[in-house]
Every structure is written in C-alpha cells, then in structure tokens.
C-alpha cells in the first residue's frame, strides 16, 4: 500500500509536467506563427515610409547586404559650408581627416531620396547610382515604389539592368501614379529594349537614356514607340538620347517616329555620330 501511495503523486506530477510541456509547446507554436506571419514580400504591408519599408523588404527577399536609405545632400554652397570644405581639405593634406573607411563610405551602395518636406512619407525623388539592380532588388522596388504617393522622379545610373529586370521595372513604374521623370543612364542592355518605357500607355513626361550604347536597332525601336500609323505616345515631352551610337540610319528611324508624334517638344541627339544624311532626315520632319 505504501508503494502505491508513493507512485500516485509521481504519476500526478508526470501528468502535470506533460500538461505544462504541452501548454508551452502550444504557446511556442503560437509565437512562431506570429513571427512568421509575414513570410514573403507579398505579405508585407508597406507603410509609405521608405526608410522603414526598404530594409524589411530586402530582408524578406533574402538580401544579406542591404543598402541604407539616405537623404540626398542638397546642392549649393553657402559661405559657411565653403569654409568648412576648405578646412577639411587642409586637414586631409596635413594628414588629418577621417579614416579611409569613412572617407570612401560615399562609394558604398545606398538609396538616396529627396523629400518634399519633413515627412518621411513625402519622398519625391529616388536615386540609385553605381550598383546593380538585380532581380531581388527589382522585386523590392515593385513593392516599395508604388506606395510612395508623392514620387515624381527616379534616377538610375549604371545599375546593370537586364531585359528581364527592365521589364519588371517598367511594370512597377506604371503603378507609380505621380511619377513623371525617369533617368536611366550608363546602363547598356544587349536587347536594347528601352522603348518599353515609352509605350503608348506610358505616363512619363521626361525620359533620359544617355550613354546606353543605343545603336540603330535601338533607335528603330524607340522611333516605333514614338509613333506608328496605328499608335503614338501621347505623354512624353522630352527625350534625351545623347552619347549613344545611333548614327545616320538610327537618326532616320527617329525621324520616322517623329512624323506622327504630336507631343514630344524636346529631343537631344548630341554625340551620336550623326552626319549629313541623318541630320537631313531629321530636318524634314
């Protein structure tokens, strides 16, 4: 009888432990579910604050190195800043100044933004300079940029796009209702599919495609995007094609596209190896 009495409390204790373990496992399971509620980039609800949304989206697509979001430095030099620049330059000549890691921090990838005011949700301009925008970053942009209700300008310089990522970017830009200016420069694409940015349904008013190695085939596609007997772009006001390889034949393709286009007001074809035949074709438009 004594042994039975001793075993009974142990069984109760064991049952108590098992119940506690079950409860803890259930609570742990709930915590895991709560933490994994946002499992993919599609589940993330953007707030419109790029500084907060951008790193979260980058983490969700599996990026290890996430470019910081920084305010773009304002241009213009005041007497005070001019003096500080001279002092910093002199200190660097004297062997002072910041260490090399800080001195070259400006070369690291970063997402530069310009705000309309003090509200972090008032981003009006986004700049990407000198780092590749791959498929992961294109997915991040597809979620973050359309939620910037005040975004008016996007600057991309030497971003290493491919036909696939440019197509993704184009689809993203079509969702940015306030966006009117895009600069895509220093980014050669073998397929030369830049014309998709000025399709008939494009809302862009200003587009710069400088220094993209666009040749006569790319110019032909751009000319067809400007106008054909069946369709025409009705929103683009200025187009910058300077510093490409358009040549005389490409210039004639552009001229053909201008014939039925009644919207474009400004076109730059500087430094494109265009001679008299190409110039003559443009003059006849």
TrEMBL record:
<protein>
    <submittedName>
        <fullName>Uncharacterized protein</fullName>
    </submittedName>
</protein>
<dbReference type="InterPro" id="IPR032675">
    <property type="entry name" value="LRR_dom_sf"/>
</dbReference>
<dbReference type="InterPro" id="IPR053040">
    <property type="entry name" value="LRR-containing_protein_71"/>
</dbReference>
<dbReference type="InterPro" id="IPR001611">
    <property type="entry name" value="Leu-rich_rpt"/>
</dbReference>
<feature type="compositionally biased region" description="Polar residues">
    <location>
        <begin position="77"/>
        <end position="93"/>
    </location>
</feature>
<feature type="region of interest" description="Disordered">
    <location>
        <begin position="71"/>
        <end position="99"/>
    </location>
</feature>
<dbReference type="Pfam" id="PF13516">
    <property type="entry name" value="LRR_6"/>
</dbReference>
<feature type="compositionally biased region" description="Basic and acidic residues">
    <location>
        <begin position="1"/>
        <end position="25"/>
    </location>
</feature>
<feature type="region of interest" description="Disordered">
    <location>
        <begin position="1"/>
        <end position="31"/>
    </location>
</feature>
